[in-house]
Amino acid sequence: MILITGGTGYIGSHTAVKLIEQNEDIIILDNLYNSKSEVIDSIETITGKRPKFYQTDLLDINGLEQIFKENKIDCVIHFAGLKAVGESVAQPLKYFNNNITGTINLLMAMQKYNCKKIIFSSSATVYGTTQIMPLTENSPLGVTNPYGRTKLVIEDMLKDLANADNEFCIILLRYFNPIGANQSNLIGENPNGIPNNLMPYICKVAKGELPELNVFGNDYDTVDGTGVRDYIHVEDLAIGHVKAYNKIKSNNGLHIYNLGTGNGYSVLQVISSFEKANNIKINYNIAPRRTGDVATVYADTKKAEVELDFKAKYGIEEMCRDSWNFYRNI
Ligand code: NAD
Ligand code: UFG
Q: Which strand (E) or helix (H) includes residue 4?
């Protein structure tokens, strides 16, 4: 039995679908802080199977232990966490408490109930402002904001745990920039308020909910001066988790993998891919650089390819098509 924390969220829900499609037994835990319980209905509609759901907060130790008591959990896929970089700068303690304390509670419960396999949602943000691309799993680490710090602290805690107890198997997955949605259009990314991230912002402009996109800087040392990122379809990312689960079943120790495509696209290239894929014009203007942004980020994907047999298959236009198909239907 696999416990998916944060399983009604964006990436967790897509992964839940893929695991059910592989006939795995899953349980979802989420406090619904940033997602809705209807996602469980959507997962059932897509897969024909309704996962067991606990509306539980990782900060509620008793509630958490109850889940381990009631179910024989062999592996945890740990998505639950807060992820808004700007909010983390304004409210670091909220992030440290939710993400770090929440993870400690989870690990203590796992140890108590002898569950020693965990796949953790880390991020390319742990590479800080390293300039040398592509980023390999051995590139230098560093952080630029409290959200990133929570990821790095949790990675370090998990490394210590793997050193202390060699029965643990831990996989750290460093995601690059997930976009897109399941082709059912029933699950996808729908942040509240004004989005921080590029693709949800573009979708809101496309739908007329926001007037225009601010392109943060056009004087970077990139193909057209705008920031370059490694966008990965969330369906590919979900498959990456299935591959990681297949590996964790029969391995010990700690393993780290980038999950990206290895290709970088600039903001203007994403806009034109979106326009082409969906036949919609996106209004934008060039705005100043956003503090903390770097010019270019993309992954070296070889390790995941060799050790997990994972290779992303969707291209940027398919990602733009699926993001929009989900967003225009809600
Ligand atoms: P999301 O907000 O859609 O999903 C996270 C889920 O966790 C939400 O449903 C939320 O309600 C739940 N949650 C948060 N705190 C909780 C708590 N204390 N107890 C129980 N549930 C809690 O985010 P996502 O985009 O699906 O991201 C999933 C994970 O991947 C996060 O850890 C995030 O930091 C990481 N990540 C995301 C991105 C990205 O761009 N989306 C990039 C790199 C890493
Ligand atoms: N951008 C704009 N306008 C916007 C939003 C973004 O021009 O309104 C630009 C950014 O400057 C950047 C690119 O679009 O060049 C992508 O920005 P995102 O905010 O979508 O993504 P980031 O790469 O900045 O960060 C995201 C997550 C982090 C995560 C990281 C992993 O927000 O939490 O991907 O690489 F760590």
A: strand 2-5
CA-proximal residue: ligand 2, atom 32 (nearest): 197
Q: What would the pLDDT profile of 237-272 be if each residue is shown by its tens digit?
A: 999 999 999 999 988 899 999 999 999 999 999 999
Residue 147 known to be catalytic = yes
For residue 175, is it within any domain?
A: yes
Global pTM exceeds 0.85 = yes
Catalytic hit among 10, 54, 147, 220: 147
Ligand whose nearest atom lies closest to the CA of 198? 2
State how beta strands 265-266 and 228-229 pair.
Answer: antiparallel
The three-state secondary structure class of 117 is: strand
Domain count of the fold of the chain: 1
Locate the ligand 1 atom nearest the alpha carbon of residue 197 and give its number. 40
Determine whether the shortest distance from the Cβ of 105 to ligand 1 is under 6 A: no
Output the six-digit token pair for 50: 């309704």
Quick one: which H or E segment has residue 54?
Answer: strand 52-55
**49 in any annotated domain:** yes
Q: Tokens representing 276?
A: 């082409």
pLDDT digits (tens, 9 = 90+) for 2-56: 999 999 999 999 999 999 999 999 999 999 999 999 999 999 999 999 999 999 9
Q: Which domain holds residue 118?
A: 2-180+231-261
What digits encode the pLDDT tens for the residues 113-138?
Answer: 999 999 999 999 999 988 899 999 99
Mutate to test the pocket of ligand 2, among 141, 216, 282 (most ligand atoms within 8 A of CB): 216
Average pLDDT over residues 75-85: 97
Atom 34, ligand 1: residue with shortest CA distance: 83
